[in-house]
Amino acid sequence: MASASKVDKIKEILRKADTTVADFPPLTERTFETVHYACKGSPFRVMQWNVLADGLSGSSPTSNFIKCPSEALSWSTRKQRLIQGILTYEPDIICLEEVDHFYDFFKPSLDEVGYTGIFVPKEDSPCLKFPGNSGPDGTAIFFDKQRFKLRKQQSKQLKNSDGTLTNQTALFVHLFDNLNKKSLYCCGTHLKAKPAFQDLRSAQGKSVLAFLKDFMENEQAEVLVCGDFNAEPTEPVYQVMEDGVHGVPLRSAYKTISRSEPDYTTWKIRPNGEVKHTIDYVWHSEGLKVDGYLHVADTASMNVDRLPCMAYPSDHISLVFDFSFLE
C-alpha cells in the first residue's frame, strides 16, 4: 500500500500528464482482476513493459508504424502517456525494455515518487544508428525504495550456445522486501528479435538462468524474470524458462492465473503487414502466488490501427500482476 504522500505525488504527476495530452482519448481501458488467496503477508505489484524506444518509433526515420498518427509518436507527448501507463497502476517493481530516455525522463520522473532505478544498455543498440538519437536503448528495473532494499545488482551480456557473447543483456537485482522480511531475486531482459532466431533465443534463455543461478549464490529464494522474449509460447525458450533455475520450475504469471497466455502482447501494422504476437512474460517461482492481474484488452476492442495509437503509447501491452509469498 502506497503512503499518502506518494499517492498525492502520483496524482499530481498524472494531473500534469492529463493536461499535456488533453486532446488525446483516455488510455485503453483494461480491467484489473483480484483473486483472494489465504496468503500471509503483504502482496506486491509487478509491471513488465516494453515501452517502445523513442529511437525506434515513428519519430525517427524508421517509419515502423504506418497507421499511427505522428502526434501519438512524438516523444513530448508519448512520454506523458507512458508515465500515465506506469503510475496509474502504482507498481512496486517495474521492469522496462527499449528504454532510451532513462536519465532524462524515466529516472527523474520515477525518482520523484519514491522509486530507485537501475539501467543496462544494449551493447550495440539500433537506436544509435539514427541522427539526433537519445542514446542506446536498454533494460531498466525500478523498485519502491520504501518497500524494497537493494542488496546487490549485476548486468550480463547474454551468451549463444557456443559461449560467444550476443548483443542482448540481462539485469539482475537482489531485493529485500521490508514488509514481508524476505529476499526476492528479479531479472529483466530483452531477447533477440526476428523469427529466424529461435535457437539463439533458446540459448539466451539458458544464459539468463545460468547467470541468475550464479547471482543467487545458492540462496533458496523466490524469483521473478520479466521481459520481452520475442518468442511465442510454442518456441523452445518457453520450455527453457519453465525448466527454471536451481531445479525450481518457473511459471508464466498470466497463464498461472488465467489458465492461458493472452491473445497478444504486441499488435502493430508495419509497412510489410500486420503483426500480432504473444511474446512478453513475467515468470515466477512456485513460492510466489499470483493473486491479481491486469487483463490484456479484448481483441474486439482493439483500436483498428492497432498499436501504438492515440489511446496507447507503445506497440507492446504492459503486464501487471499482484504477487504474495506463500510462506
UniProtKB/TrEMBL annotation:
GO terms for biological process: nucleobase-containing compound metabolic process. Keywords: Hydrolase. The keyword Hydrolase applies. Residues 47-316 form the Endonuclease/exonuclease/phosphatase domain. GO terms for molecular function: 3'-5'-RNA exonuclease activity. PANTHER family: CARBON CATABOLITE REPRESSOR PROTEIN 4, NOCTURNIN. Belongs to the CCR4/nocturin family. This is Nocturnin. It comes from Nematostella vectensis (Starlet sea anemone).
